[in-house]
Description:
Among the domains are: about 170-225 and about 255-405, no CATH class; about 425-550 and about 570-575, Tetracycline Repressor, domain 2 (Orthogonal Bundle), CATH 1.10.357.30; about 610-800, Dsl1p vesicle tethering complex, Tip20p subunit, domain D (Methane Monooxygenase Hydroxylase, Chain G, domain 1, Up-down Bundle).
Amino acid sequence: MASVETAAEHERILREIESTDTNCIGPTLRSVYDGQEHGLFMEKLDARIRNHDREIEKMCNHHFQGFVDSITELLKVRGEAQKLKSQVIETNVRLQEDGKVLIGSMEELKQCRVQQRNIATTVDKLAHCLPVLEMYSRLQEQMRAKRYYPALRTLEQLEHTCLPRAGQYRFCSIMAENIPKLRMHIRETAMTQLRDFLESIRKHSDKIGETAIKQVAAVDFKSVSMSNQSQIKQKYALNMLINVPLTINQRQPIRLLHLKIKEMFVQPVQVPGAQDLVDFSPVYRCLHIYTVLGLRDVFENYYRKQRRKQARLVLQPHSNMHETLEGYRRYFNQIVGFFVVEDHILHTTQGLVNRAYVEELWELALSKIVAALRTHSSYCDDPDLVLDLKNLIVLFADTLQGYGFPVSQLFDMLLEMREQYGEILLKRWNLTFRQILDQDNFSPIPVSTEQEYRQYTSQFPLQDPELEKLSFPKKLPFSEFVPKAYCQLKEFIYACLKYSEDLHLSSTEIDDMIRKSTNLLLTRTLSNCLQYAIKKKNVGLAELVQVIINTTHLEQSCHFLEEFITNITNVPPETANATKLYGTATFKDARHAAEAEIYTSLNAKIDQFLQLADYDWMSAAQSSGGLTTSDYLIDLITFLRSTFSVFTNLPGKVAQTACMSACKHISTSLMQLLLDPEVRQISIGALHQLNVDLKECESFARASPVAGFQGDTLLLAFSDLRQLLDLFTQWDWSTYLADYGKSTCKYLRVNPHTALALLEKMKETSRKNVVLAQFKKADRDRQKLIDAVIKQLRNLIAQHHA
C-alpha cells in the first residue's frame, strides 16, 4: 500500500516539474529530498527522461526533410540577397554623394532659423531686463552716494514694477533676495544717522543756545529807539552827577562816561542762525525713509522718546552751577539749544513733533528750571552774581518767548529772587556801613580849599549859607561817615534799580520796589549799624555827640533821596499809594538812641566820680565857713564844664536835656548816699558838709553850662535835696509839719518817708552822743525833740495813707 502511495506521489511530483517554471521547482525538489524514496524517484525520473528523448527523436525524424528543403531554399535566396545588397549599397553611395550639398544647405538654413529665433527671444528678454539692470545700477550708485531716500524709492519701483516684468532669471532672483537686505540696510543706516544727529545736537546744544541768545540780544539791541538811547544817556549823566557806579563794586571814572555810552550803541556783530550750526538733513531723510517703509509711527515714538531722555539730561543742573555765572550760562544755553531744535523740527516737519508735545516738554522743563534756579540761587551771597544771573534769566526768557514759549513763571521767579537779592544787598551794605563806621574818626571834616569843599558838597547835599561865608580853612559839621553813607544809600538805590530793569514792570512798580528796599536798608541795616556804633564799648561822649550831629544832617538829606528816586524812576512822590521813605524816623531813632546813650554814659561817668565820695557821716558840727567843697565834686564839676563845652554843635534841646539829666543824676545820687541802708548813722556835721557840696552844684547850675535855660530852671534838679538839707540844717520842723500838704509849703518836695528815714539815722547818732556825753541836758532835750518829730512824721504818714 505504501509503495502505491509513493508511486502516486512521485508521479505527481514529476507532473509538477514538467508543468511548473524551473524557478519554482525548489519546494518540489525539497519534498523529494525530505522523503525516504530518493533513489526510487531518481529511477522514475530517468525513465521519464528516456521517454521524452524517444518522443523528441520521433518528432525530428518526422520533420527532417522539410528542414532540409528550407535550408536549400534559404541558400538560394542568399545569393539574390547579396546582389540586392550590392545594388542598395551602390544606390545609397550615389544618394549620399548627391545629398551632401542639400544636407549642408539645410543645416545652414536650420542654424539660421535657430539664430533668428534666439535673437528675437533675446531682444524681447533684454527689453524687459535692461530696465531692471539700469535701475539696479542706479540703486547701487544711490547707495554708494548715501542717497538713501531716492534709493528706497528706486528699490520700491524695482520690486513692484521692473522685476515682475523681467521674468524668472537668476539675477532677478538674486536681486529679489537682496531687496529686503537693502531695505534693512537703508533703515539701519538711516537710524544710525539719526542717532548721530541726536548725539550731535546734544553735544552742540550749548553752542546752538548761545547763538540763539546772541541773536535775541542783537535784535533787542537793534530795537532800542532813539528815545530809549536818550534815556540811557540821561541815566549815565545822572550817574555821573550823583557819583553812582555802574556796577556795585567798581566805580566808573567820569572820563570814561562818554566812551561807555558810545560802546553801548555800537552795532553788534552779526551771528549765524541756530539752523546754520546744525544739519537737520539726517532727521528729514530718516523721517522720509521710515514713512516710505510704513514705519513713521515707530520713528516718531523713537525720536520723541530719545528727545525726552535728552531733555531730562539737559534739565539736570550741575551741583556746582551756583558757584559761577558761567555755570548758569551753560545751563541756559543747553536748554535754549534743545528747544530751538524742537521748534525748528516742529515747523519744518509734518507731524514728527506737534505743538502739544513741545508744550508738554516745555511745561516739564519750566517746572524743573524754576526749581533748580530757586535751589541754586539760594546758595548765592554775591549781589553782582545775582544781578548777572537775573540779566541772564531775562535774556533766556526773552529768547524762548521769541520762539513762542510762555515764560511768565520765570518772571514771577525773578520777582521772588528780588527779595533774595534785596537781602544780599542788605548784608553787603551792612558790612559797608560798619566798615565806614569803624574807619570814621567821629570828628568834623576839616577842609582847606574850595576844591575840597566842593568835593564833599557834591557827595552830600549840604546847605549851610553861614558855613559857606566862612573863610578857609574851616570844618564841616559832620564826619566822613555822612557823605560816605549818603553815597552808599544812592548806590544801593541804583543797585535796586538795576535789578528792576527788563522785568516788564511799570515805573510805579519799580518805584515802589526801590522805596521798599531803601526803607529796609534804612530801618533795618543802617539803623542796626548806627545802634552798633552807639552801643559798642569805649564810645566816648564826643563820639556820641558826633553821631547825633551826623544823624541830624542825614535826616535833613532824606528829601534829597526822595528826589533822587523820583528822578531815576520818573514817578512823582505825590502819586497815590506811593511808598514814603522812613529815613527821617530812622535817623530820629538813631539820634534818640545816641542821646539816651549820652545821658547813660554821662551818668555813668558821674557815678565814677561819686564813687570817690568819702563822707564822714559821724563828723562833728562845724561852722559853715570852715567847710570846703569835696575834692571829688570839684573834679566832677570840672569834667561837666569841659563836657558841656563840646555840646555846642548839638541841637539845643539835646544839650539842655543832657545837662538837666546830669544835674538830676547828681542830686539823686547824693540823695541815695544819705539814704544808703549801709549808712546807719548821720551827724549834723555830715549834713553841713553835704550842704556845702550842694551849694557848689547849685553854683554850677546857676552858671548855665548849657545855653537855653530860662532863669533858674536848672536849679530845679537839686530842689528835692536842697529842701531836705534846709529842713535838717535849719531844723525847721514846725513849719514843715504845719504846712505839709499845702501848695505854699516851703518844703513841698520833701517826702515824709525820706525825712523819717534820715531822722532815724540822726536818732541813732544822738542816742550815742547822749550816752557819751553822760546825759547832758541839751543832748537829752535834742533827743526828745527828735523822738517827738519822728512820732509826728509817723502820724503824718499814717494819716496820708488813710
